[in-house]
Amino acid sequence: MHIADVSLGILGANGIVGGGLPMACGVGLSIKYRNANQVCVVFFGDGASNQGTFHESVNFACAFKLPLIFICENNLYAISVLYEKVAATPNVADRAKGYDMPGVIIDGNDIEEVYSTVCDAVKRVRKGEGPILIEGKTYRHLGHGASDHRPYRTRDEENRWKSENDPINRLKEAMIASGQLDESCYEKIKETALADADDALEYADSSPKPDPKDALKYIYV
């Protein structure tokens, strides 16, 4: 969850719901002041869209035409609460109208649609036309955490999403149908990916525990 690598432009996440949104505004200001040809992309969930930081950040970004792309991964549930039960608009992207900003709804499990939509958004933002909000409709297959046994939804619903809308399977089928991939090549890719994951897990398990003295490193407030 908390992945960060500044050298790759991945500035990191945090455990506060919606906490990344105002941080993204700071990044956007930095880009604008430096006249850099960069775009900041900030990801958040449907639960974060009901936080005050969402509205404050979107308003600020639009007022100053910051080079930001807001991407909401709407997986229907904010931990256990169904989005439609706590939102006044059917879609998160509908809220973009209130800030005079484009709001786009896409199938978040269609990798090709996600890629092309974000590419178009980057071009728009780099022209100085201000931020854009993209809402990807998707689904969280597992519980929110290890203690989440998902009593708020049915197993039939989960199986339906897994069988009909799994993004990896959908991309695989599309690439096979277009001749870009065959079954044997897919199996090799899958085998390599699983081996890499096993190696990473083994590395983590065999690594020494961190020094408790390092717990306060990079803490500013």
Can you offer a commentary on this structure?
The protein has 221 residues and is α/β, with parallel strands linked by helices. It has 2 domains: 6-143, 3-Layer(aba) Sandwich (Rossmann fold); 166-207. Helix content is 42%, strand content 13%. The strands form 2 sheets. A 4-stranded parallel beta sheet has the order 1-2-6-5, with helices on both faces. A two-stranded antiparallel sheet has the order 3-4. Helix 1 (20-34) packs parallel to helix 2. The longest helix has 24 residues, at 183-206. The protein is globular and about 50 Å long. The model has no long low-confidence stretch (mean pLDDT 94).
Pick out its properties.
single chain, 221 residues, alpha/beta, Rossmann fold, 4-stranded parallel sheet, two-stranded antiparallel ribbon
